[in-house]
Structures are given as C-alpha cells and as structure tokens.
Design brief:
By secondary structure, the protein is an all-alpha fold. It contains 13 helices and no strands. The chain has helices at residues 2-25, 27-58, 64-118, 126-142, 145-158, 161-186, 194-232, 238-248, 255-268, 272-298, 306-326, 328-340, 343-358. Helix 2 packs across helix 3 and helix 7 runs antiparallel to helix 12 (328-340). The N and C termini lie close together (10 Å). Belongs to the autoinducer-2 exporter (AI-2E) (TC 2.A.86) family. One of its GO terms (biological process) is transmembrane transport. It holds the Pfam family AI-2E_transport. Keywords: Cell membrane, Membrane, Transmembrane, Transmembrane helix, Transport.
Length: 359
C-alpha cells in the first residue's frame, strides 16, 4: 500500500513536469497564458478596489464578474488615454528619428573625432577607435529598422485575431477562478502535503505579482521623469528616450546605464555641454531610483544578491537576448522560492522511508 502511494506520488510529479515542458514547448499556448497572467497581476488590485467600493455603495455583495468587467473597462480607458496622449506623439517622433537617423549617427561620429583632434588630453587609442568605427558602421547599416521591426513583431504577435479574444478570456477566468484552479491542481497530490503546496504557490503568486506591479510602476515613474527632463533640456526625441528608459528599467543593474547611452548621444548631437547635462541628469535619476523609488515600490520582494543577478543576466542575455535579460529576475525569484520549498519533497521521502521501515 505504501509503495503504491509512493509510486503514485512520483507518477504525479513526473506528469506535472511533463505537462509543464509540453506547455512551454508550444509558444502559441504559453504566450497568451503568460500575457494573461501578467494582466491578471496588474488588474487584481483594481478588481479588489472596485469590489469593495461597490459593496459599500450598494450595501450588499456584488458578483465578482461585475468587478472584473469594470476593471477591464478601466484598463481600456487607460489604454485609450495613453494612445491619444503618448503613443501618437511617440510614433511621430520615431518616424522623425528614422528619417534623421543617418544624420544623427554622422554628427555623433564627427563629435568623437573632433574631441580627439581638439582636446590633447582626450586621446583615443587606435584599438578603441577601430571599435568605435565598426560600431558606427553597424549602427548606420542597422538604423532604426531594428526598433521598427521589433515594434512591428510585437504588434503582429499581440494583434492576431485568436490572441485578441483568447487573452481577455483567459484573464477573466484567472481573475475569477484563480483560487479554484490552484486548489484543483493541488488536489491531485496527497492530502497531508496540500498545505505546503498552497504555501508554495501563494508565495510564488505574492513575489511575481508584487514584482510585476512594482516594476511597471517604476518604469512609468522613470519614463515620466526622463521625458520631462529631456523636454526641459531641449534634448531631441524626448518620448523615444523615455520609452528606452522605461524598457531598460526592467533590466537590473545595467539597464539604466544602457538606457542613458542613447540620450547622451542625442544630446551630443546638439552640443557637448548638453551631453554632459544629460549625463548628470541620469546620474541623479539613478540615485533617486536606487535609494528612494526602488525601496518604496519594491521593498523586500526580491531577495537576490547583486552578484547572482549579474551572473543570471549574463546567462539570460546569452541564451535569450534582451528578453532573457528582462525575464532574469522573475525567473531567478521563481527558482529561489522553489528551492526554499524543496524541503517538502525531501520531507515526503523521509516519511515514506520511515513508514516503510515500520512495515
């Protein structure tokens, strides 16, 4: 009997792993689910606020379906406002940047050469100069097409007819029956260990939801600060720079540095003094981000040492490019939570061994 229970437990674990591998092997399946999970994490607090507000207003419990639908209305309203106030001007600046990209690259390259010829202390070694020349040639050939193609790819993936209907559908039921789904999954395992599995999935949900919401809020704050700063300093294409800052904010440690480079180069096309101002601005924003915004928004959600993050960034960037670098922290957080709960499996094995010994 005990051996049968042990075999049954192992079989369920193996089947769970195989199901997970199959899920991630079919991108047409996992991308809509992942997007739905992210939207669920973002909208869950909105749903809860609406639910509490309506309950107090009508003095009786409101069906959760209504709160979920109203949270979708809020999301659509925010997207419409953003499209009119941000996306349209952003697209105009991207088109203008595309038209002037070769000129901007040429000006920046001329500035580097001028700095070397006019300023004696500013010496550029031949090896570094060769790297700079090669980089500018690649940038000139690459142009803004890379960004344009990336944006087009995102919209092609997200804009298919199937996903347009599937993502809201999955999101609705994640928000409505997420707890029931988790209970059903946990229910396939032995009863004495369901409490531990509930604790594991609850902590996983807490970490990922807090991270995604916090990171999204931080990106919005950094994008707002950056766009305002670039606009006040008359740096060209402030919305494009803000978009880059928002995206690179998701890459820990090196993201803000990478995001500052385009802004400094665009400032340099106007004047070296403006480039220096942009550099100082980014240093100040980075200090605010690291010492004020990050602790307030994220708190102690992610407890990962910076060395582990950097190593994980290298691995993620090498294997999956920019997407791998962005997903590094949440994936490492999942592994961290999982490793902390691995005692559950060892505890189960120890109990099975003791029960076998008694029999």
């Amino acid at each position: 009997m005990i051996n049968n229970k042990k075999t049954e437990f192992r079989l369920r674990v193996v089947l769970t792993i195989l199901a997970a591998l199959l899920f991630f092997a079919v991108k047409e399946v996992y991308w809509p689910v992942i997007v739905s999970l992210i939207i669920t994490f973002i909208l869950a607090p909105v749903r809860d606020v609406i639910q509490k507000g309506l309950t107090r207003f009508v003095h009786r419990k409101i069906p959760v379906d209504i709160s979920i639908l109203l949270s979708f209305v809020v999301l659509i309203g925010v997207l419409v406002i953003m499209t009119n106030s941000i996306v349209k001007p952003l697209i105009s600046q991207l088109k203008l940047l595309d038209n002037n990209f070769s000129t901007i690259v040429g000006r920046t390259y001329e500035l580097v050469i001028q700095l070397e010829s006019d300023q004696a202390p500013f010496y550029i070694p031949d090896q570094v100069k060769a790297i700079i020349n090669e980089t500018f040639i690649k940038i000139s050939n690459y142009g803004i097409d890379g960004v344009t193609n990336l944006v087009k790819s995102v919209f092609v993936i997200a804009g298919t007819v199937v996903e347009f209907f599937v993502v809201p559908f999955i999101t609705f039921y994640f928000m409505k029956d997420g707890t029931k789904m988790m209970n059903a999954f946990v229910g396939i395992y032995p009863e004495e260990y369901r409490r531990h599995l509930h604790a594991y999935f609850s902590e996983l949900h807490h970490v990922l939801s807090r991270y995604i919401r916090g990171q999204l809020l931080m990106s919005c704050i950094i994008a707002t600060l950056t766009s305002c700063g670039m606009w006040l300093m008359d740096v060209p294409y402030p919305l494009v720079i803000a978009l880059i800052a928002a995206i690179t904010e998701w890459i820990p440690v090196i993201g803000p540095i990478v995001g500052a480079v385009p802004a400094i180069l665009l400032g340099a096309t106007v004047s070296p003094a403006l480039a220096l101002k942009v550099l100082v601005f980014y240093v100040i924003v980075q200090q605010l981000d690291g010492h004020l915004i990050l602790p307030q928004v994220m708190g102690k959600v992610i407890r990962i040492h910076p060395v582990v993050i950097v190593i994980s960034l290298l691995i993620g960037g090498t294997l999956f490019g920019v997407a791998g670098m962005i997903l590094t922290v949440p994936m490492v957080a999942v592994l961290q939570v999982t490793s902390e709960h691995l005692w559950f499996f060892s505890s189960y094995r120890e109990r099975m061994t003791k029960e076998n010994g008694k029999n």
